[in-house]
Amino acid sequence: MTHSTLSLSPQDLLWQAVSTGDEHAATSTVFDALEHGLPAQEVLLELIAPVQRRVGEEWAANRLTVAQEHAASAIDDRAIAALSHRTATAAGTGAAGKGRVVVACVDGEWHGLPARLLSEVLKLRGWTVDHLGAQVTTDHLIEHIHQTGPDLVALSSSIATRLPTAHAAITAVQATGTPVLVGGAAFGRHGQYAALLGADAWAPDAKAAADRLDQGPLKRPAQAHQPIDDLPHLDDQEYTMVARTKSRLVRTVMAGLEDRFPALRAYTPAQRGHTAEDVALITDFLAAALYTDDPELFTTFLTWTAEILTARGVPARSLIPVLDILGEDLKDFPRAAGMLARATDRLAQPHRGRLAREQA
Amino acid sequence: MPCPVLIVGRSGTVRHANDHALALFPAAAPGLSLAECAAAWLADAHEQKAAADARGANGANTVVSGYIAGRSYEAHPTVQDDGEVVWWLVDDTDHRLAREALHIEQERTAFLAEASNALLSSLHLERCMDVTAQLAAEHLSAAALVIAPGSGCRLPVVTCVRGQKPVRDQWEIDPQEVPGLAEALQGFPPVPSRWIDPVTAPEWLIPEGFGEVGSIVVTPLPGHGVPAGALVLLRHSGEPAFSEEEEVFARLFAARSGAAMSAARMYAEQSSVSKVLMRELLPPALHQIAGVEFAGGYRPSKDRERIGGDFYDVHPAGAEGEPSFAVLGDVSGKGLEAAVLTGKIRNTLHALLPMAGDHQRMLELLNGALLNSHHTRFATLVLVSAVREGGAVHLRVTSAGHPPALIVRADGSVEESASRGTLVGAFPRAPATTVCETLAPGDFCVLFTDGFTEAKGGPLDEEMYGDERFQDALSRCAGMPGEAVVEHVQMLASQWVGSGQHDDMAVMVIAAPKSHHLSMVGGHTKGRFTA
Q: Which of A64, A194, B390, B437 has the fewest CB atoms within 10 Å around its CB?
């Protein structure tokens, strides 16, 4: 260790190690913090969690690629594994008496670290934890519940496009008589989608989740609950239609864009591939907004995309033709058309939109 | 039909009583106060009616009801112009009894529906026992015990006292001490519900702090071929004992609980069998061995299953300085049957480890073993022997009809290993060439199955993921830790296929660690590091 690194805080040191892929330095930072008397729980919540949050922010701000984000998360994960092994060895095996919790990410969710942090914190607080990891299919989750009969399932999801899948998982778990606590950015800043999808509890982070569970058991969910009971608006089939015809919508948009931007025809296959992926993601968010019947979910995503495009030197207005083409295609679907129109307004007048948001 | 009628003045004085009214209230002579000669509830109702009328709340002719001489009556008031109230008494005893019986039946039906929902929702035995005990304690008796057949002399027991949570325990008890319990636990011979004299009941049967027991009934839980256990219901001494009707109802409930518990028991037995059988077929967890990083990931084609026709394995070197042996392969076909053959191949290769120095010989022997088996399937695979020397990792790579191993350099360039060979298990010979590669620190080698490159999907759907995209993705992973590479390509493939169909996908990364530290010994302790 060089002298220059001594002046850095442990968080800065860990960030440096994680962002340069230096597993050795990452683990050393974590162990040093433990040796300086920081309790394991604080190491997880005050050292590793903020660094992981920063990884997420850097990725969201387009300063880390997805691959770099994976690399950073893998280093964090190894540091957590080393910490977990060390505290488990120090404490002896399982003095657990509080009950059994299953921790899992919903199917398609690859950001496993928030769930991993929760598992470790719950273990430290005396729970028996079955950590099922990232992207757990609902089949496997339910099978596990039947086999182990947990007191609670904690589900994590970071991206709002996974909300329909999360909803299916929540209702399936509740149908086994097991309450569900959810967390992660997908459920909204204030957990509004957690309530909408009928989760039994929501927590903004691992500490809040562990505190909530320490307050007392969650109530057993009510019986005979169907997903449609939570979301009567799904009756209009708009979500189903958009979700099922996604690839057709993407094709339509790509064809329409070629007419409006002849320059697109000169794109390399790879560039066209990226554009198509972006359009597919926009369609996914539209579907999620239809599922939750929350236009703001779609608008927020587009505003964020516009900011990233602007950061890359692409004018945010280039998104508007995409919305226009989708709007023409979906003109017979009032909720979808309304959401697209609203998002177009916001993009066309970003400042007014921002002001309105601040006032709200 | 004429009914008893009383005409009563505002002040509560009886003005007139017809013959039917006199039959009910023989003392009801005109001029007497209603309170003196009729039922108290009627007098009270009249007083309230008169007070309401005086306030001007006319028209509120509320019907009241009560008992007269053991029968139930409704009293309907009508107010005359002079303010006198005419009370018409209607005998509704039979109607009321029918209503009460209907209400009880409705409650029981609702309870059975609730019980069925709660019991059917779980296939976990203890959870079913909890639900049974809790429902019984809420609806049937002050406390309930569910006793399940045990494997040894200890019996799993769930106790629930009304208003409390069910408590699980294991008891070392002699079921013979309770008449009917031993038979109920054996499931044979069939026994009816049994009344137990609370005085003869053993102490363990009565929950702590329950107080004096009035009645106990033991009901077997029918298990349809497998014994499910017994339900014991207890009531306090102050409460009425179980009526015959209640006992029949308890049996209806027990039938549902027993069916749910035996289904849960069978499910648990089945899943423990398949878990044991599957353990050998699951891909192993990989980690660093002798300074070489191994990481692997697997996704079967059917999301319901955990195993399929792709496989990988890593065997550490027998002695220091010798190479570790890694294999990744793909058996034709999918699902359980393909998985069984992967197990066979993995076992055969394990046995052939002593000749890992000669990949071609290994493949020939494996080919012979597969040809001689009754399986008609064949397999493609790639073998790698990896050993670290200084910071570099030396590989010997042999492909048997498998997509070539890819070498990803620290600068992001991707090379295909030149080894080629024939698939195994189909032809009498399985010739292959072995190629040597060297990984500098930060380089890694990727073994994968065609489930990745042939994945169909993408934003436009039906498009093949393809070698080019796969290699581009790997190129962007240059310098990343092995697990991160595995996770990254798995994520990309999974996003590519979306909710569509896909083949089994297996990937293994063999990497020369970037830092010159040997990562932590055993991967978990700060341990020693070699420079």
A: B390
Distance from CA of B464 to the nearest CA of A (A): 12
The token duo for B302 is 């059917």
Q: A356 to chain B, minimum CA–CA distance in Å?
A: 34
Chain-chain contact of A23 with B271 (C-beta, under 8 angstroms): no
Orientation of helix B335-351 relative to helix B359-371, angle to 10° = 130
In chain B, residues with a C-beta closer than 8 Å to the C-beta of A75 are 481, 484
Please tell me the predicted confidence (pLDDT) of residue A20.
84
- Domains of chain A in sequence order: 8-93 (1.10.1240.10), 96-230 (3.40.50.280), 233-359 (1.10.490)
Q: B127: which chain A residues are within 8 Å (Cβ-Cβ)?
A: 149, 176-177
B459 and A276 within 8 Å at the Cβ level: the answer is: yes
Does B484 contact A74 at a Cβ distance shorter than 8 Å? yes
Q: Which of A146, A173, A326 to mutate to test the interface with B (most CBs of B within 10 A)?
A: A146
Q: List B236's β-bridge partners, or say none.
A: B213
Torsion of CA B354, B356, B362, B363, to 10 degrees: 160
Q: Which of B520, B525, B528, B530 to mutate to test the interface with A (most CBs of A within 10 A)?
A: B520
Mean pLDDT (chain B) is: 88
Strand partners, B74: B65, B90
Per-residue pLDDT of chain A (360 residues; tens, 9 = 90+): 444 455 688 899 999 988 888 888 999 999 999 999 899 999 999 999 999 889 888 887 778 888 888 888 888 888 898 888 888 766 554 455 789 999 999 998 988 899 999 999 999 999 999 999 998 999 999 999 999 999 999 999 999 999 999 999 999 999 998 999 999 999 999 999 999 999 999 999 999 999 999 998 888 887 666 778 889 999 999 999 999 999 999 999 999 998 888 888 888 888 888 889 999 999 999 999 999 999 999 999 999 888 888 877 777 778 899 999 999 999 999 999 999 999 999 888 755 544 444 444
* Contact residues for B302 (Cβ-Cβ < 8 A; gap 6+): B308, B334, B335
A270-275: long-range contacts (C-beta < 8 A, 24 or more apart)? A270/B472, A273/B458, A273/B459, A273/B469
Q: Residue B122: which of A81, A176, A270 has the nearest Cβ?
A: A176
DSSP character for A135?
S
Which of A24, A70, A176 has its CB closest to that of B519?
Answer: A24
How wide is the angle at C-alpha A172 spanned by C-alphas A166 and A175, nearest 5°?
A: 140
Domains of chain B: 5-91 (3.30.450), 99-276 (3.30.450.40), 293-523 (3.60.40.10)
Per-residue pLDDT tens digits for B370-391 = 998 877 789 999 999 999 999 8
Does the beta-carbon distance from A224 to B117 stay under 8 Å? Answer: yes
Q: Using one digit for the tens of pLDDT, what is the confidence trace for B342-365?
A: 999 999 999 999 999 999 999 999
Give CB contacts under 8 A, 24+ apart, made by B34-41: B34/B6, B34/B8, B38/B6, B38/B14, B39/B66, B39/B67, B39/B68, B41/B66, B41/B67
CA of A273, closest CA in chain B: separation in Å?
A: 8
Q: Which of B333, B335, B328, B342 is nearest to B297 (CA)?
A: B328
Contacting residues of A for B304, CB less than 8 Å apart? 137, 139
β-strands B463-464, B456-457 pairing: antiparallel
Q: Return the ∠ at Cα B408 (arms to B403 and B412), rounded to 5°.
A: 135
Distance from the Cα of B66 to chain A's closest Cα (Å) equals 39
| Per-state percent for chain B, helix, strand, coil, to nearest 5 | 35, 25, 40
Taking the CA of residue A138 and the nearest CA in chain B, the distance in Å comes to 9
Distance CA A306, CA A357 (A): 16
Task: State the sign of the Cα–Cα–Cα–Cα dihedral B340, B343, B349, B351.
Answer: negative
